[in-house]
Design goal:
66% of the residues lie in helices and 0% in strands. The protein has 6 helices and no strands. It is an all-alpha fold and 147 residues long.
Length: 147
Amino acid sequence: MPLTSRSAAARRRHDRGAEAGRWRRWWRPHPLAAVILTAAAGLVILFLPGGRVTVLLLPGLAGASGFLFGSALCALAAFLWFAPGHREFTGVAVILVSLTSLVTTNISGFLAGKLLGVLGGSLGFAWYGTDDRPPSEAGPPTRRGAG
């Protein structure tokens, strides 16, 4: 057996590491947790208070604002994903829309939408991308665990 061949188990470990590296490179420049929480808040506000009733059958302000604020939070989640450079503005907008939905949309999806939205907006606002490190941490990027 030649010295250059690897065992099947070693090849599988290498392939898993390469897959994890690709996944990490894909999501690292985006605030993934903030996007997920913001989209979840939008969906909760959009669907939870209405149940199986469509938006047209919900009475007055609660139906229209539930549709409006739920859609706005889903759109802001897309902004967080596709334009992470504007995360400060988008994070504040997510928090404001979530807090406003508490008053206008059936208690903001029974408070779940407000809490998810505030948490997602806070994470979006506080997220640092790979190129957004504060000046105190300037220097070449280091690997985790390298002291």
